[in-house]
Each structure stands twice: as C-alpha cells, then as structure tokens.
Amino acid sequence: MKFKLVRIDDRLIHGQVALGWSRAKGIDTILAVDDVVAKDKFQCSLLKMATPPGVKSFILTADEAEQKVKDGTLEKKKIMLLVKGPETLLKLVEKGFEISEVNIGNMRSVGGKTKLLNYVYASDSEISFLKAISAKGIKMYGQAVPDQSGVDFNEILEKI
Fold first, then answer.
1. CB under 8 Å to 148, separation ≥6 — which residues?
2. Tens digits of per-residue pLDDT, 34-62?
3. What class of enzyme is it (predicted)?
C-alpha cells in the first residue's frame, strides 16, 4: 500500500496536520498509530474531534494498523500515516509497511534531547531509531508545514 504522506509528529492529529497536510496532499484517511494513545479512549476522542470533515481517521496500535493495512479496506484511500515517534515508524517498517519517504514534523524538546531542527528534538534512542530508518534507504525530510521548504533529514543524521 502506498501512503500519500508518512509523518512523524508527536501531536498526531491536530489543526496543522488535519487541515494543512490533508488539503495539500488530498488526504481522505488519517491512520494515526501509537500503542499508548490507541488504548486511551479520551485521547482517541480528542484526536477524532481534530479530524476535518470529509476525512476519516483511525487511531490504532501498530498491530491493529498492520491488520487494517493487510485487510485491504484502505487500498483505494489517500492515506496519511502519522506516528508520534521514530520507534513506532521503525516498527511499522519492520512489519512490512512500504515506506519510501518520511516527513519529520514536530518532535518537542523535553529534557535531555538534542536539537536537530527548530521543531525537531530527539533523544539518543530516537536518533538511533531515525538512523535505522535512514539505513533502510528511506528518504527523510524535515518540513513543519506544507508551504515551507523541506530539509534533507538524512544529511542531518549523517552529521551526528
């Protein structure tokens, strides 16, 4: 299955993603994947409320997302795959998700993280996951909003 956009954004579905990226990419389905959030009914309801009209959203664990993709019901959809962090993305890649390109969006600064871009901070383990994704030949680019130019994120990782 080919995704219209694959994005790491620790906020998952929010105004910027729901409106900006879905309009820019013609998205009709958002697949938000996070093992913790998917089990929290309150967070799921908040994410559903942030989904724009005309766009369907699913908030799933990695295993549920794998099943959803394999069952074929999303085959003709224009999907944005969202994950909170690189560990989940690597897990999906290892489950066989066909991902050739990743948009690195917001990864907030929380104590002890390294600043990689103005809107991307990563811990040592997150950097390791990002490097593992890059090592699989997946192109990564940093781009906070659709009307901004992208930055080659693979090159940034090579300098660390």
1. none
2. 999 999 999 999 999 999 889 999 999 99
3. transferase
DSSP reduced 3-state for 5: strand
pTM over 0.85: yes
Domain with 150, as residue range(s), is 5-158
Taking the C-alpha atoms of residue 136 and residue 152, their distance in angstroms, rounded to an integer, is 16
Task: Give the sign of the dihedral formed by CA 80, CA 23, CA 106, CA 116.
Answer: positive
Amino acid at 75: E
Phi, psi of 77 (to 5 degrees): -90, 155
Which residues lie across from 103 on neighbouring strands? 7, 141
Catalytic residues: 14
d(CA 116, CA 25): 25
CATH code of the domain containing 56: 3.40.35.10
